[in-house]
Amino acid sequence: MSNDPTAQKKRKIQIIAIGLLTSVAVLGGLIYAFTGEDEVEEVNNLGPSDSMVPADPTMINVDTTGSLLASPAMIDLGPENTTQIFTLMATGVPVKISDVRVPADVASDLRVNSIDCPAPTDDLMAGSTCSASVEWSGLKPLSSTIEVIAVSSLDPSKEIKTTIPVRAE
Fold first, then answer.
1. CA 57, CA 99: separation in Å to the nearest integer?
2. What distance in Å separates the CA atoms of residue 162 and residue 72, rounded to the nearest whole number?
3. Which residues lie below 8 Å from residue 141, measured CB to CB, with a gap of 6+?
4. DSSP string across 21-88
5. pLDDT of residue 167
6. Can you say whether residue 101 is alpha, beta or left, with left for phi > 0 and alpha for psi between -120 and 50 degrees?
């Protein structure tokens, strides 16, 4: 190596330039490696490979029948209380109440009146209630039932029956 100060200065500049070019190349490679120039395909919908979707999805059966809950569960009538209101609540799906029946053998002593439920062509929505009043003549004791007939609004072929025991003494 020469001791010429100009040659030494030139050599230092070359070493620094090579170092800078190497650093820029390495840094550029790192940036490319982490950001990449390749296009990344965006996935906008879930598929079986996604962790939140089961590999083998199973079918879920939806109950289209529903039910009617009566409250009180039993109607108790007596000389001091010959009339009682009962409530019906649709559960699961909307229902159409088509009939409220009293057996023929007690129909002269037991009547259902003041029915405050939707018309048979209209829905009683799931979670909604309606009411009716049962009246006993008070003439003779009886033990019978009131039967409420409805159909599922989602599947009219599915009949829903709710029986409410009635005791009158």
1. 41
2. 12
3. 168, 169
4. HHHHHHHHHHHHHHH-SSPPPP--S--TTSTTS-SS----------EEEEESSSEEE-SS--EEEEEE
5. 95
6. beta
Q: Is there a cis peptide before residue 72, judged by omega within 30 degrees of 0?
A: yes
**Which residue, chain included where needed, has tokens 């070019």?**
21
- Looking at every residue in the chain, the average pLDDT score rounds to 81
Kindly state the tokens that stand for 6. 């100009």
Residue type at 6 in one-letter notation: T
pLDDT for position 50: 52
Q: What share of the chain is helix, strand, coil (3-state, %, to 5)?
A: 20, 35, 45
Distance (Å, whole) CA 95 – CA 169: 33
pTM over the 0.70 mark: no
pLDDT class of 28 with cuts at 50, 70, 90:
low
**pLDDT for the residue 124:** 95
Place of tokens 């129909």: 107
| pLDDT digit string, tens, across residues 80-115 | 999 999 999 999 899 999 999 999 999 999 999 888
